[in-house]
Amino acid sequence: MSLKPGTKVNFLDYLKHDSNDILLAINERNPENFDVYNLDLKTGKRVMIEKNPGSIVEWIADNDGEIRMAIGSDGVTETLYYREKGSKAFKAIKSSNFISTLKPIGLSSKANHIFALSDINRDKKAVVELNCLTGEETKVWYENKERDVLEVSYSRKGKSLNFAVFEDPKREIYFFDEQLKSAFADIKKKLNGDEIRLIHKDQKEQHLIIRTFTDKDPGSYYFYNLEDKNLMKLADVNPDIKPSEMCEMKHVKFKNRDGLEIEGFLTLPKGRGVKNLPVIIYPHSGPNLKNSWAYSPEVQFFANRGYAVFQINFRGSTGFGKAFLKEGFKNWSKNIQYDITDGVNWLIEEDIADANRIAIFGYSFGGFSALNQVVYNSKMYVCAASYSGYINLFTYLKGFPAYYKPYQQMLDVIIGNPEKDVEYLRYSSPVFQTNRIKTPLIIWQGGKDPRVNLSETNQFVKEIRKNNVEVNYIVNENEGHNLSDEKSRINFYAQLDLFFDKYLNRSK
């Protein structure tokens, strides 16, 4: 299948199990819009079956490969469209502000009804059933008053729900399907209680691929037969990891300056006690993501070297409801950073952290946070590290690809408008605050990063160095936003290890 350079292809769906066809969304005709194509895997022939009218950002097919739903956006309002089987005309059935979620899960066995994940008229995402002819919510299948539902497993074969997942703080599963409930209990028993994530199931829904994990073990992949309950290991994620040598990730809570309870995870190094430890603050990327109880290579890497590692689910993190998420809007350098600062102060007050040995490290938005922290809280950290951290939000906003155009107004609300919020965006962008940075830094930059401009980072580093601040600047010309080359990754983390040891004095 030949395509124009720069074309993006998204896999949409399989067709029937005995077919050679798949559905793809491709933006070849117009970089801003995705049309739907049927691709014959044997012949390579593709045929456009849905032409984007200009506003559709997502297409959804039924079990027969017929596009039955679509989501449109004007940048602020999202609209769910539906059409009955065999019909050519879509009908708008429900509209909501982008801040609210209405995500279709699949068709119900009840005619013209669908299952969806929704937080419309509620704070937390819940599993609901929707009448597509009236747009009315007819049933709430599951909701949790404290947490968002993060994941829903759906049976295409039975047009029914399997289970819903939330985190509090570990993965909790609410089952709709008794067979799967029994299967998961059987698997857990056989695997001594490890966490289980369903990765895939075959089209007949009799065979499962699952992954296990804990905070100390990246886990393994298994094949499970629902009929005979046979569990077969396929592969370990990393057989060299010895869980007995890894460190425990503990769930913690603290109050921020506004009296709001903030959650996070604290990993303490083995054999170092629990007081006056050197600490690495490790903010997550996103910011509309979250830290979860799971195995983290970075966390274990730092803890193995004698550092406590603190991960904070600051305001703007997902999983805690709509109101908590909105607290991060246009607060990338304020509310979010306040929560990180308050978390560090909590560690000091609890005598967990040695106030003179605190560092911060992050990737992407986490790197942006690390730089923001040393701009406005320079005395709190002895050093900081940024891996692909944003330095200029004006450049960041310009760097989105053409197919993000429908979301432009949404970005204005979440991050800021480059024309109307100039003062705030300058305040938030480390590139304009180099005179405030006094903390030793290590910065990694990819030469082909679409989100962080190499020339700007070069100048950023040059300006900081003018103030006699140490900057260990690592550039990999052929990398993008992520470090993908194994040798380059090993080199970066080796330098990071030396850098932290120099300033945190882990042997103390």
From TrEMBL:
One GO process term, biological-process aspect: proteolysis
Domain Peptidase S9 prolyl oligopeptidase catalytic: 293-505
Transmembrane stretches, start-end: none
SUPFAM superfamilies on file: alpha/beta-Hydrolases, Peptidase/esterase 'gauge' domain
InterPro entries: AB_hydrolase_fold, Peptidase_S9_cat
Keyword Hydrolase recorded: yes
Molecular functions (GO terms): serine-type endopeptidase activity
The entry's keywords: Hydrolase
DNA-binding listed as a keyword: no
Pfam families noted in UniProt: Peptidase_S9
PANTHER family: DIPEPTIDYL PEPTIDASE FAMILY MEMBER 6, SERINE PEPTIDASE S9 FAMILY MEMBER
Name used for this protein in its record: S9 family peptidase
Organism annotation: Pedobacter aquae
